[in-house]
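Please check this chain.
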Amino acid sequence: MLADPAAAAAPTVLNAYAKMILGQGGLFQERQLTAEAEQAHQLANRLSPANPEGVFRYVALLADQKRFDEARQIAQTAANLAPDNQQFRDVLTSLNKEK
């Protein structure tokens, strides 16, 4: 998907694909397949780094594992890409309180 120039230029296509992958990631998480869930969230985030659902799920997965630096990086990227999104800034503020 990322290698296809037509798809890469069509945010709607990337968002739809990212949403499908997030669904799979959720199923992996429900079944305690953390590594697979992380891969799915990582791919969805690469496809659509400012997708709120993807950002929040990925950040939650990382924070649950106490990987706050990585979670902050994801939240910061999302906040930079969507500076008007208050939820991204709130998540970032919350993560900045964690060690």
Summary: The chain has six helices and no strands. The chain has a mean pLDDT of 91. Residues 4 and 65 are 33 Å apart (CA to CA). Helices lie at 5-8, 11-30, 34-47, 52-64, 68-81, 86-96.
